[in-house]
Amino acid sequence: MNVSRWLGSTLVIGGLGGLFVDQARAEGSSSAPLWQERFDHDPLGWVDPSRHGARELARVYSVEKAGERFFLHARHDVTTSDPAPAMQYGRTFQRNQAPLDRVSALRWKWRVLGHPAVTRDPWLDVAASVYVVIKVPTVLPGKGFRFGWLAKPGRSGTKQRGLLQVGLRTDAAGREWRSESVDLCALYRRQFGPCEGQHVLYVGVVTDADGTKSLAEADYADFELLATEGGKP
After folding, report:
1. Closest by alpha carbon to 190, among 155, 135, 143?
2. What pLDDT tens digit does each residue of the chain (233 aa) get?
3. What residues does 204 pair with on adjacent strands?
4. Could you say which of 21, 120, 124, 156 would form a disulfide bridge with 211 (CB–CB 3.0 to 4.6 Å)?
5. Residues 124/115, Cβ–Cβ less than 8 Å
6. Cα(189)–Cα(123) distance, rounded to whole angstroms?
7. So where are the chain's domains?
């Protein structure tokens, strides 16, 4: 896919390990969030870095509610005669940027309702991706992460315009919500160097099927950036 100036080709780097937050500890954390998104307010304040307008974004992304939960629904159908482009959708932090060394975890819930067509490279199209940008890619590579729920296992340690691609799941599509919790600072230290002095600039999602001309569908909910003890910016 090619959803914005941020994204592009991949490069292979080293592997991962031991960089995900212990789920029980994360779920039991009493830290006040540095940021959270429940999708229960209007306007949402999310944007596409490529500056697609609200009407175009609404062809793929919509806020829905089931029971007490609000969530972001994403459906990218490229089987039609006039498909929407693949688009990022997320929160840009121009103020109150979270210092990376004060973030204990990024956590969220998601589910894949339909994977796109499977190809040799499962990163070509991904039903559910979560992006975290620490340094925005320009003519030089950026720094950050793309966390994916892939249709099948992919190569580990690839980068997209400097953003490390991390395959978190390869579960089959279904209705059950899954929870994730990732230690951004530890992951950043492992791949890019010290996280001190760095800030979270963007958190967003992509659901896309343009590379395979197929259909991808997913839901996202309950985003939180949790602070370390005494870690409010």
Report:
1. 143
2. 433 344 433 333 333 333 434 343 344 444 578 999 999 999 999 999 888 999 999 999 999 999 999 999 999 999 999 999 999 999 999 888 999 999 999 999 999 999 999 989 999 999 999 999 999 988 888 999 999 999 999 888 898 888 999 999 999 999 999 999 999 999 999 999 999 999 999 999 999 999 999 999 999 999 999 998 755 44
3. 90, 131
4. 124
5. no
6. 24
7. 10-227
Tokens of 233: 């910016």
* Contact indicator for 137, 162 with CB cutoff of 8 Å: yes
Three-point CA angle 85, 156, 29, nearest 5°: 85
Instruction: Give me 128's structure tokens.
Output: 């559910």
CATH topology of domain 10-227: Jelly Rolls (2.60.120)
Q: How far apart are CA 204 and CA 47, in angstroms?
A: 9
